[in-house]
């Protein structure tokens, strides 16, 4: 059989905890559920940064944010940095995408042959705020983001819907193009076999990698009546109230302050409507997943297509009185990671802690691709194929430690943040823990098995001192918070200088502008 095709379907700001494959029985995600049942679910998958740009940069490069200077939403990925898109392209894959990837800077491809749509956000340096300008605690200049919670509910149409409908139209069109190529090649092969002659197809016979990346369910929580009504009469659990002895960590207060949700008087009814809107937007994304998978079936592409569903980060959805992302806590940092396709057993659940940097080496292994001998092996990710109960085809040869690292250096923080989710031996046996380090502030340690809500900080508990020390040493190995802080601030000042210069005089946009000729059908590389 030929090398598998790859269909990567991405959501923006979708928490794993808001999907049915991860145990949420209130949200309606039947298509993700069906894919999980015929493939594998990574039960404890994390983003490596709870904001769009750095998370996606880490996913594509297989490297943690600090190692590539992915400090915030205004960070530029150098064009010379290898991504798995470059790797697949060199191996003979077509590499295309429709939708959001949120590249910053003049390179808007990073190994893609073609993008079928523009991005939803501008490619400039404007979507970050230097720490020295945020205030202490950090605060946005207005409450427009917070009002996305207060105003959650039905809209006839939104900018996000307009964008995702274009993304989806182009994605379906491209899959149909792939499908027709596949059917023509199959017919040509059959005809050649019958006649005894060699077939010569005009279609591109290369395998393909295609990414369909949507902006839903990103805030504000506005959705059409159709999706809002799906949740009429359904129970929606609201965030738990804090235990009486709970004291918020200072870094939690930063997130609350930055988004200014505490300034707009959010009520329990607001929380219900926002969570209902978020679930409804998630169902909208899930319907798009169903459409894409039906096209694979319609054209006979499913059997040789690896399907991956994930997101760049989650959304706190009111947990700990926090909204949106920017937190290393579970609702913000946990993401769906579902993989189905050739050689992957259905209904498989992997319980290890993994993250988006693992996707690069996992793809190489599943596609049978070796690491180039002349390229330094600087990847932070590890091959997950052994966790899928399939043999590794590539030559990564690297043992995978259980653990996922989450970093945060962006707007809404005041100091470098690094967290590790991992299994470790504690006073009650082997458990799943999360250790959170915020430079110059007290550490946090949570037993995620006993305390999934992350309410009880065990970092100073004498019985947990050994496991705290083990996780701290592992988390901070090769990472210096003071040096990272210096580098972050220096980068922010440098980019701020360049941004001010580029905004003076004649403006030249870095935004991607796709070319499309309707008379010629789907754009081809």
UniProtKB/TrEMBL annotation:
**One GO MF term:** choline-sulfatase activity
InterPro entries hit by this protein: Alkaline_phosphatase_core_sf, Choline-sulfatase, Choline_sulf_C_dom, Sulfatase_CS, Sulfatase_N
* Record flagged with keyword Hydrolase: yes
Keyword Hydrolase applies:
yes
- The UniProt record lists the EC number as 3.1.6.6
NCBIfam families for this protein: chol_sulfatase
The protein's name: Choline-sulfatase
Q: What is the organism field in this record? A: uncultured Chloroflexota bacterium
Lineage summary: Bacteria, Bacillati, Chloroflexota, environmental samples
């Amino acid at each position: 059989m030929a090398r598998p095709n790859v269909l990567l379907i991405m959501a923006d700001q979708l928490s794993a905890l808001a999907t049915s494959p991860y145990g949420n029985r209130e949200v309606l995600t039947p298509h993700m559920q069906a894919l999980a049942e015929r493939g594998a679910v990574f039960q404890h998958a994390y983003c490596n940064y709870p904001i769009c740009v750095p998370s996606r940069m880490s996913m594509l490069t297989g490297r943690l944010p600090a190692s590539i200077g992915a400090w915030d939403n205004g960070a530029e990925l150098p064009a010379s940095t290898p991504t798995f898109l470059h790797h697949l392209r060199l191996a003979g894959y077509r590499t295309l995408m429709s939708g959001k990837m949120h590249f910053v800077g003049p390179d808007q491809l990073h190994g893609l042959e073609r993008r079928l749509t523009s991005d939803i956000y501008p490619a400039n340096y404007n979507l970050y705020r230097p720490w020295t300008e945020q205030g202490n605690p950090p605060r946005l200049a207005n409450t427009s983001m917070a009002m996305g919670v207060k105003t959650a509910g039905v809209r006839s149409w939104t900018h996000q819907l307009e964008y995702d409908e274009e993304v989806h139209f182009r994605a379906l069109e491209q899959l149909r193009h792939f499908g027709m190529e596949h059917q023509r090649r199959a017919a040509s092969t059959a005809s050649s076999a019958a006649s005894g002659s060699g077939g010569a197809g005009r279609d591109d016979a290369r395998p393909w990698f295609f990414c369909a990346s949507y902006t839903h369910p990103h805030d504000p929580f506005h959705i059409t009546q159709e999706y809002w009504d799906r949740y009429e009469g359904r129970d929606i659990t609201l965030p738990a109230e804090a235990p009486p002895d709970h004291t918020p960590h200072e870094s939690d207060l930063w997130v609350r302050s930055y988004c200014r949700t505490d300034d707009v008087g959010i009520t329990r009814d607001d929380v219900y409507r926002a969570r209902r809107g978020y679930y409804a937007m998630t169902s909208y994304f899930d319907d798009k997943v169903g459409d894409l998978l039906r096209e694979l079936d319609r054209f006979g592409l499913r059997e040789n297509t690896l399907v991956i569903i994930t997101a760049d980060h989650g959304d706190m959805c009111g947990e700990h009185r926090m909204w949106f992302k920017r937190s290393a806590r579970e609702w913000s940092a946990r993401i769906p990671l579902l993989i189905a396709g050739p050689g992957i057993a259905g209904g498989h659940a992997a319980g290890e802690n993994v993250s988006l940097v693992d996707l690069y080496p996992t793809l190489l292994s599943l596609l049978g691709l070796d690491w180039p001998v002349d390229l330094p092996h600087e990847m932070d990710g590890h091959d997950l194929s052994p966790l899928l109960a399939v043999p590794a085809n590539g030559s990564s040869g690297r043992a995978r430690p259980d653990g996922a690292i989450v970093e945060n250096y962006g707007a809404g923080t005041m100091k470098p943040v690094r967290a590790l989710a991992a299994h470790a031996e504690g006073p009650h046996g082997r458990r799943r823990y999360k250790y959170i380090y915020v430079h110059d502030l007290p550490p946090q340690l949570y037993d995620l098995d006993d305390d999934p809500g992350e309410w009880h900080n065990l970092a100073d508990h004498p019985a947990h001192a050994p496991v705290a020390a083990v996780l701290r040493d592992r988390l901070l190995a090769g990472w210096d918070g003071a040096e990272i802080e210096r580098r972050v601030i220096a980068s922010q000042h440098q980019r701020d200088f360049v941004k001010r210069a580029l905004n003076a005089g004649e403006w030249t946009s870095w935004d991607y502008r796709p070319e499309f000729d309707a008379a010629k059908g789907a754009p081809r590389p």
